[in-house]
Amino acid sequence: MNEIERFKELVGNSDNIVFFGGAGVSTESGIPDFRSVDGLYNQKYDYPPETILSHSFYLYHTEEFYRFYRDKMLALDAEPNMAHKKLAELEQKGKLKAVITQNIDGLHQKAGSKEVLELHGSVHRNYCQKCHKLYDARYILESEGIPTCECGGKIKPDVVLYEEGLDSRTLQKSIEYISNADILIIGGTSLAVYPAAGLIDYYRGNKLVLINKSATPMDSRADLIIHESIGKVFGAL
């Protein structure tokens, strides 16, 4: 039995699956990955993306932050791919309990997933830092310079920037889902970003599935490894 057949069998026999995903889930929808060869590291900015997308850069170079953010982080026309769609289907069938994602693009929800825990926030939620009024991503994309609220306050995206902590409630719920899961499927992530990658340590089962094109630091702990495109693997379900 090959890896994909084994994967299909595992999924078929479980109704307590949790999926943990990273950038590789969205690259197949045309959203660039930070670390890929043609990703955001090889771009036309004076600073590396990790500097621009930091809390201190946002504070002190807000206009430059937004120039990059509009240009690179708001892929509002992207559509869910096969992985997003199949995960939503598995949830509707009562097999999948939650999607835990490092992505901020909202594509899981666009595909129909309901229980989505966004570790790094979402580009679709933006709030005035003064009066807390909410704005959507389209408002940010179409604004110029620093987006401001009608009250005059500065609008900030509800995404977790470098130097900022993750939301404690989202983390706690993620830990509960992972520690109770029968199958934990990890897809499209190099498992290099902490504290998110550390969540895997809470999994207590013996059906850890890793789907990623390249090797990860967790490969030795996996019960099934599939080095293949995530859309192709989920497309086989």
TrEMBL record:
| Enzyme superclass (EC) | transferase
- GO molecular function terms listed in the Swiss-Prot or TrEMBL record: NAD-dependent protein lysine deacetylase activity
Q: Where does nicotinamide bind?
A: 34, 104-105
Q: Which cofactor does it need?
A: Zn(2+)
Alphabetical list of InterPro entries matching this protein: DHS-like_NAD/FAD-binding_dom, NAD-dep_sirtuin_deacylases, Sirtuin, Sirtuin_cat_small_dom_sf, Sirtuin_class_U, Ssirtuin_cat_dom
**PROSITE patterns named among the record's database cross-references:** SIRTUIN
For the ligand (Zn(2+)), the binding residues are: 128, 131, 149, 151
| Stretches assigned to the Deacetylase sirtuin-type domain | 1-237
The EC designation for this entry is: 2.3.1.286
Active-site residues, Swiss-Prot/TrEMBL: 120
Per UniProt, which keywords does this protein have? Acyltransferase, Cytoplasm, Metal-binding, NAD, Transferase, Zinc
Q: Could you tell me which HAMAP family the record lists for this protein? A: Sirtuin_ClassU (MF_01968)
| Stated family | Belongs to the sirtuin family. Class U subfamily.
Descriptive protein name: NAD-dependent protein deacetylase
Species name for this entry?
A: Maccoyibacter intestinihominis
Q: Which gene encodes it?
A: cobB
